Amino acid sequence: MTFGFIETLTLIGALGFFIYGMKIMSEGIQKAAGSSLRRILSVMTSTRFLGVGTGFLITCLIQSSSATTVMVVSFVNAGLLSLTESIGVIMGANIGTTLTGWLVSLFGFKFKIASFSLPILAIGFPMIFSNRDKLKSWGEFIIGFALLFMGLDALKQAVPDIKSNPSAVAFIADFADMGVLSTLIFVLIGTLLTVVVQSSSAAMAITLVLCNQGVISLEIAAAIVLGENIGTTITANVAALVANIHAKRAAVAHLIFNLFGVIWVVILFKPFLDLIEILWVPFHNLLKSINPEFVNGETEMQLSLFHTIFNITNSLLLIWFVNLIAKIVVKLVPSKGDADELYQLEYISSGIMSTPEIALLEAKKEVLKFGNLIKKMNKNVKLLLTEQDKKKVKYLLEKVKSHEDITDNLEAGVADYLAKISESEMSNASSIRVRGMLSIVGDLERMGDIYYQMSKAIERKISEKIWFTPEQRQNLLKMFDLLDLCLTTMVENLAKESGEVEINDALDKERELNSFRKKIRKEHFKNVEKGEYNFRSANVYSDLFNSIEKVGDHAINVTEGIIGEV
What we know:
The chain is mainly α and 566 residues long. The protein is elongated, with a radius of gyration of 30 Å. Residues 338-343 have low confidence and may be disordered. α1 runs parallel beside α3 (65-77). It contains 22 helices and no strands.
């Protein structure tokens, strides 16, 4: 048959079928076990070896090293993992992603698993209509699993028959006998293939199909697989270009790790393939004893063994240099200092979107940073009341204005991110958290506006030489102190899980602030009647203590948003 335009579209469609099945399967398992995966990551990374094991385990479960990397970045952002620990997990993720190759080579070619896909779909289909979020997610996983093997079957059918297309083999043969240059050419082909299909697992499946059809030899396939290991890191680095510094560092660490591995294997390519041949003999006998069907089609099985041994060996070599890799990454991707931390979204990885449950971790950390910024604004506005040095006053005014601009940017950035999260299918609990966070960032932004208005009132007071009495000044300073207690409780609550938040403490502090405001307001009106304050002083004083009370109201609104009372 002639391999023309329609056949090319069929091949692309089959590949899309396979990738879509993998996407549905991966997202389903992440949603079903999201909280469990987070607990595993946060507990099992105390040493670099446990980190590798954790990365391997989670990637085996969710069948996506990219998803594991995104999860790791979320935890680095949230302060639950250090960069050093995250590198260990990424190493493990590289080993875990080899499981896809084994699934395809063991089952995809040996059994007619695609014929079982429709019965598997029949099991998963009713589950996706369940009212229980976890059961629904498991249904998506089952459907994704069925679609993955249906896609693989379609991919096998779409690959051209080499007997009818000898020109395809001739094209490959032209590049197969050029020594190290041949290896480098096929490494490049593997890299480009992975960048194009945006999935190392999908690229691996294509390579295995080509092996199964006899289109390429083990040597060529091994070189392509090495390229796929580079390609998957390029995809992550491109995605991280618009992300935060933590995402960039994790992506660069992944690149360094894989690139180093490819370099040393290319140098020792022939000896390494000889090692695979030696290891294949006992492995072949083991598989044959389990099921004789497993040893049919040795090339793809040997390729899966090559992929696994390569990643395990590379991890064993580099696990001793994790700290060095971390230092190199920090130098390659330096922080831009306070400006970088403040003016940009620090924790949200806008270039990489995972499941809503994991993405909410990043949004939560960004909101916590927002709360700490409000605390800084409270401190600076309070300092304006007593500062007499003109240069320091100017600096504080500029600082408050700068922070108010940042609050606007933070609200817009976090709200946009939460809107993107909302577009995905999520559990009821996650939906409530998104609504709560949207309410919270709105309150925090309004608090920033109020502080800016207070700073302008104090600036006007200074420029017009309006003086407060000692009593007025002390009352305002005490209100700022009471407000600081409210804000401290608010920030502590932002750092907690909603179920851990106790609102009574926040309510008590807000009542104390309101009570003191009522007291000084009553005294204020009496003093105005007595004529003890001039009108301009009374006006600024009244604006300030009323504004402080409004900030306190927004602070309690934030805590209500955390526990879902919006």
